[in-house]
Amino acid sequence: MESIKKISCLTLAITALYSSMTIAADVTDKDLLNDQKTPENVLTNGLGLEAQRYSNIDKLTAKNVKQLRPVWAFSLGGEKQRGQESQPMINDGVMYVTGSYSRVFAIDAKTGDEIWQYDARLPDGIMPCCDVVNRGVALYGDLVIFGTLDAKLVALDAKTGKVRWKKKVADYKAGYSITAAPIVVKGKVITGLSGGEFGIVGRVIAYDAKTGAKAWERPTVEGHMGYAWQDGKKVETGISGGAPGRTWPAELWKHGGAAPWLGGTYDPDTDLLYFGTGNPAPWNSYMRPGDNLFSSSRLGIDPDDGKIVWHFQTTPHDGWDYDGVNELISFNYQENGKTVKAAATADRNGFFYVLNRTNGEFIRGFPFVDKISWAKGLDKQGRPQFDPSNRPGDPSNAKQGKTVVAAPSFLGGKNWMPMAYSQKTGLFYVPSNEWQMDIWNEPTAYKKGAAYLGAGFTIKAINEDYIGVLRAIDPKTGKVVWDYKNYAPLWGGVLTTAGGLVFAGNPEGYLMAFDDKTGEVLYKFNTGSGIVGSPVTWTMDGEQYVSVLSGWGGAVPLWGGDVAKRVKHFNQGGMVWTFKLPKS
Amino acid sequence: MILVSLSQFAQARSYDDIIAANEITIAVYRDFPPYSFEQNGQAKGIDIHLANAIAHGLGVKLTLLWATPGETTADDLRMYLWKGNNLHTNDGTRVKADLMLRIPYDKNYAQMRDDQGLLVHEQVHMFAPYQQERWQIAYNPNKLEQIATMAVFQYHKIGVEIDSAPQFYLTTAFNGRLRNNTKTYLDIRDAFAAMTQTNAVDAVMGIKSQIEWLHQQHPQQTHISQQTYPLFDTYKWDIGMAVGNDYRQLATPSKTYCSINLNSNIYTNGQRNLVSVISSLSYTNKSLLK
């Protein structure tokens, strides 16, 4: 069966090549830097390396978006349907998407016909820490590069889907995994890692994108040595944070977690990569008094050698599982006649931060969700003012202890789903969730045949009628210009366009278009399963297209309780939907 | 020779399915001596022995499903017993076992309810306790005369496995005074090697059977402490088995009992309960475990 399919795929690939272009459209560094300015393709995760998710295409507007129609749909097929969190990429008339379980598809962007499919073969003993999602590919040269659940980077031939190189980034047996889209900057493909509580150490790792040769690696936990590979030799490039033990007690830094699992963005202006890091390990904060750098932080990293140029920690000494991985988006604004080189991020911890992206200094921060209980606010440096009564109790010190109610829940005021920044309105469009969690000590817990000290937790909605809120936020003032409330939690990315539109999907299955100034819902289409992917737009033959993946899943349905009731009737799926206006 | 109710471990598929297929799939933890591990390509350990005895008693072939432990036992029950794992199968088939060994036998755990009042482990049935475990310390007698109280670890280094209850305890108890002397290893065997080979630690704390098994390999170099640790919430616990709950009706007391002949000369005392059999297996029959 497989060989038959391969032959037909090859035929299709050849057909597609002839029909679209006669010259090979290899992706160059320049193409990646200009991605936001080239409407005919989507070459980067975030529609530009800065990941603003802003398109300058203005053919679709508030006036005509009601006429938007699906032109094709593509099934990701198979027996394995889980959350489809991928963002499509489009180059040279071909769309590249990933599916759950480490699969990649190349699709004719005009017709929706499959060109090839690649299924990563996952090993027997794999027990990934996290969900089995994948968030997309990176394009470079004639390669399609993506990360797998068993922590490999795989570079496929863009035309055939055949493996050109494959590298083990980390050992899946030690608990490592990759779910984020890699980023390509200056010829290097750069990835982070996912990992659970198995004693991992977060790292950002760069490879030569064409050959897969390792270029550098930078641990994201204080005390670990970084390395670069120069002329085939591995050389030390300094200890992250200078020395071990500055913000960690004893030897806890050796297995400090801080996995940069959501990948990064890049700003050519400062020539810095921006990666966010996950929560520190172990999860019990009483074991590790101190700030625990560089957990729950944003890092400015030199793309040439992996040096950490600056860091900003959103949740020092995390005790709530507030990962600091959410994307940091570069943008400029005018203040007192001066251009401010800023970057913004909406953290899991419920605060929205505006930073100076040249040095990581805090400019301002404000809550972007209604309820934050773990901190009373931020000080002048952006450091949280903790509320000690809202830190979960020490599990080894107490019998079944009191329950702490903390907001946001550990799934965050905003989770992985990327927000968008409009150059037209100057607003951020933030997919957020209003929920809190109960946390208590759970002495009756077991792990690998032994008694264990666990924490029990459950997520609860704060409001009866909604959890998800899409908010238009002014980064200069913190003012919420408009919001859209959604019954189920929002878990998909946002796109905004020069045509004055904001696109986002919801778990109920709708792709929606909003007016960027008022939040009015101008268009909605039910895709048949929940949307947890990120929409894109591009032009082909002079027409504007919009694409999004549909396929309910991700972390939300993995948790029980109150929230599960809202989402348990949503059906799984796996489709790419593509829309455009009818030809007049 | 021991008596075990056969119907009790034949429920993920029905008992009839297992007999008809002439095969039972039993999940055991991967690389987890002295319970279940591979040595020179051969499956070894207490749980392997037990799995063989069960299959033999049923008169069916044994298939082992090696389980990679997740963050908690609940993950393992989901992945290997009731939902199954389809990450590595091309057609999406979920691979799961009929029976899983080394699952806690704890009424509070089995009956745990979530915030909605629903049973957390309603998908599985936990039964047949066969071993009691507790925390234990082995120490280097050249460095320590005895472990009178945990206070000695203000002055001596102790090794623990990562993300284990002893790690939690030693890094937080007494306002963290033992934290600096607590060294964390990815596996208890690495902690033991740090005591016997490099002297990086003077003691190791872990699960009793693991500590005793490691001690047996270095009987002169290490001593076992009989000290107890009242500060631990769960200081002793029972280990049993679990099956999926789909065939729960078969778990009712069965009239059919089958004798399982463990076929080893250490079982000369006639009928015993499984707990004592397995305990004696773990501590006395070194040849079996090496």
Description:
The complex is a heterodimer of chains A (584) and B (290). In chain A, strands 12-13-15-16-17-18 form a six-stranded antiparallel beta sheet, with no helix packed on it. A five-stranded mixed beta sheet of chain A has the order 1-36-37-38-39, with no helix packed on it. Chain A is globular, with a radius of gyration of 22 Å. With 584 residues, chain A is mainly beta. In chain A, strand 8 and strand 9 (152-157) form a beta hairpin. Chain A has a domain at 53-79 and 416-584: Thrombin, subunit H, CATH 2.40.10.480. Chain A contains three helices and 42 strands. Chain B is of the alpha/beta class. Chain B folds into two domains: 2-132 and 237-289, Periplasmic binding protein-like II (D-Maltodextrin-Binding Protein, domain 2, 3-Layer(aba) Sandwich); 134-225, D-Maltodextrin-Binding Protein, domain 2, CATH 3.40.190.10. Helix content of chain B is 28%, strand content 26%. Chain B contains nine helices and 13 strands. In chain B, the strands form three sheets. In chain B, strands 2, 5, 6, 7, 8, 9, 10, 11 and 12 form a nine-stranded mixed beta sheet that branches. In chain B, strands 1-13 form a two-stranded antiparallel ribbon. In chain B, strands 3-4 form a two-stranded antiparallel sheet. Chain B is globular. The two termini of chain B are 23 Å apart. Mean pLDDT of chain B is 81; it is low at 1-11 and 249-290. The chains are: A mainly beta (584), B alpha/beta (290). The interface between A and B is large, with 59 and 59 residues.
